[in-house]
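Long-time lurker, first post. I've been practising inverse folding by hand and with some scripts of my own, and I keep getting stuck on stretches where the structure tokens seem ambiguous. Below is the full token string for one chain I'm working on. Before anyone asks, I'm not after the true native sequence, just a reasonable design that respects the backbone. If someone could post their per-position residues I'd love to compare against what I wrote down in my notebook.
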């Protein structure tokens, strides 16, 4: 049974699975925001953008596979996109655990100013933007606002993305996606 399953795992099946899981995680994130009131921080929003990019690239992989053109390139691009999203998730997890500081957008401030005048101008623009959107509060990136089984949602998502990377690499190497020839079907 396991051997039969192993034979059926092809690069396109992994792409289908990642596309489905990425789309599901986006839907889950929006449900958490709009139905359960979990407000995202700016890094959460960046992660959503990265996940939407993964869905888009995986969809391009589907098209390329059935057109029998450029599948290897899109598959490699998908790996790069998942790797970038994984790096962002690890960074976000580190910010939540206070291992390092987040970006300036995370806390609404600016890091040590070298040119105080330009930072003051930026801060004034930032305050004006906040005044326009006063009903929406900034969620701090260094505070965990949603835990699932004791871990933050960001840590869980990093674990999921690590699984995606392992699947993409292992199946890609097994089927020779990274060679110049077409992958095994």
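-- Answer (accepted) --
I ran through it position by position. Result:
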């Amino acid at each position: 049974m396991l051997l039969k399953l192993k034979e059926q795992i092809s690069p396109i099946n992994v792409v289908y699975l990642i596309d489905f899981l990425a789309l599901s995680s986006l839907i889950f994130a929006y449900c958490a925001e709009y139905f359960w009131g979990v407000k995202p921080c700016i890094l959460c929003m960046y992660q959503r953008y990265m996940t939407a990019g993964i869905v888009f690239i995986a969809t391009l992989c589907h098209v390329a596979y059935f057109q029998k053109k450029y599948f290897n390139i899109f598959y490699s691009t998908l790996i790069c996109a998942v790797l970038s999203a994984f790096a962002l998730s690890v960074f976000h997890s580190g910010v939540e655990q206070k291992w390092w500081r987040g970006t300036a957008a995370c806390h609404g401030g600016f890091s040590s100013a070298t040119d105080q005048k330009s930072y003051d101008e930026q801060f004034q623009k930032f305050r004006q933007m906040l005044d326009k959107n006063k009903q929406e509060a900034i969620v701090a990136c260094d505070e965990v606002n949603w835990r699932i089984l004791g871990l933050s949602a960001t840590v869980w998502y990093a674990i999921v993305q690590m699984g995606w990377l392992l699947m993409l690499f292992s199946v890609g190497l097994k089927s020779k996606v990274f060679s110049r020839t077409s992958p095994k079907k």
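A couple of notes from the structure itself: The longest strand covers residues 147-148. The CA atoms of residues 41 and 138 lie 7 Å apart. Happy to go over any region you disagree with.
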